[in-house]
Design goal:
Elements (H helix, E strand, L loop, with lengths): L1 E2 L7 H5 L11 E3 L5 E7 L2 E9 L5 E6 L3 H6 L1 H4 L14 H9 L12 H9 L5 H15 L1 E2 L9 E2 L3 H6 L2 H6 L4 H12 L1 H4 L1 H5 L1 H8 L7 H11 L13 H9 L6 H8 L6 H10 L20
Antiparallel strand pairs: 1-5, 2-3, 3-4, 4-5, 6-7
GO biological process, one term: DNA alkylation repair
Keywords: DNA damage, DNA repair
GO molecular function: alkylated DNA binding; DNA-3-methyladenine glycosylase activity; DNA-7-methylguanine glycosylase activity
């Protein structure tokens, strides 16, 4: 299929939250400019390939049992349902970031499960640790992506696969007891969790938090991807409060301070975070580094 967006679109920026860089096992961008995504859908596994043509049109092709559902969801995934009307930039840096990134949209996959697994793995560990565990779980308990995509492309493990993992394999993947317990609890009620996409907003995030181990941060990370929640700020994040603080008020902030600074932007606070991040603002690199932990050696 082909999709011609009626808005300016930066494909890489919109798809960015779904990937974890060049080592992501379920999102691969080739030198030819094709972005491949391997996902679980309500109809089964599916692979989606997206290519932006020179005329701005998006060419999409899909394979597997979930192919039809993936193609139907392309406009939403690329931000066609995103509504930034009424957004007002209360800081010059936000206004500047918005002008420089007119193609930034908040996309919606319409799916909770894959985002949930990765978000739980990222709880209280470094991105390096989380990506290592994510890659190993996808390789060992996911499945090869349908279709002709890159050979390393993997569909994330299903709820059934997550429930089948024995303790020593969790340990080998570097996933501690708390995170594995949360994933198993979520896997037991996975179909019901998809209701969060229908509820959206505060209600949707509260629905996700019914699972023990899913708190404010995890629910926000899922909401940002599953329904493009424009207000779901990842409170509890190690980097974001400092990044927002230095960008907007020139000093480090904690969660309470960030909440106060972002309050005028409600209900589009997450949009501000995305603008700042896309514009290149980062947490200043000073202070002690987080120690990498290898749970496989414990």
């Amino acid at each position: 299929m082909r999709f011609r967006p009626a808005f300016e679109l930066d494909l890489d920026t919109v798809l960015g939250p779904l990937s974890r860089g060049s080592r992501s096992p379920n999102v691969v961008r080739t030198e030819a400019g094709v972005t491949w995504l391997a996902v679980n859908t309500a109809d089964g596994a599916g692979t989606l390939a997206l290519l932006r043509r020179a005329d701005g049109e998006i060419e999409a092709e899909a394979w597997g049992p979930g192919a039809e559902r993936l193609l139907e969801g392309v406009p939403a995934m690329l931000g066609a349902h995103d509504d930034d009307s009424g957004f007002v930039a209360h800081h010059d840096v936000v206004a500047s970031a918005r002008r420089r990134n007119p193609g930034l949209r908040l996309g919606s996959t319409g799916r909770v499960w894959d985002a949930l697994v990765l978000a739980v793995l990222e709880q209280k560990v470094t991105s390096t640790e989380a990506l290592r565990s994510w890659g190993e779980l996808c390789r060992w308990f996911g499945e090869p992506a349908p279709g002709p995509g890159p050979s390393r492309l993997r569909v994330p493990p299903t709820p059934v696969a997550i429930r089948s993992i024995v303790d020593w394999k969790w340990h080998r993947a570097g996933v501690d007891l708390k995170r594995r317990t949360t994933l198993i609890a979520a896997a037991r009620v996975a179909p019901r969790l998809e209701k969060a996409v229908e509820l959206k907003g505060v209600e949707g995030r509260a629905w996700l938090r019914k699972v023990p181990g899913i708190g404010v941060w995890t629910a926000a990370e899922i909401a940002q991807r599953a329904w493009g929640d424009p207000d779901a700020v990842s409170f509890g994040d190690y980097n974001i409060p400092s990044m927002v603080g230095h960008a907007l008020v020139g000093t480090k902030l904690d969660d309470a301070g960030m909440s106060e600074v972002l309050a005028p932007y409600s209900p589009q606070r997450q949009r501000v975070v995305r603008y700042l991040s896309t514009a290149g603002f980062r947490r200043p690199r000073f202070g002690p580094k987080i120690e990498l932990r290898d749970y496989r050696a414990m």
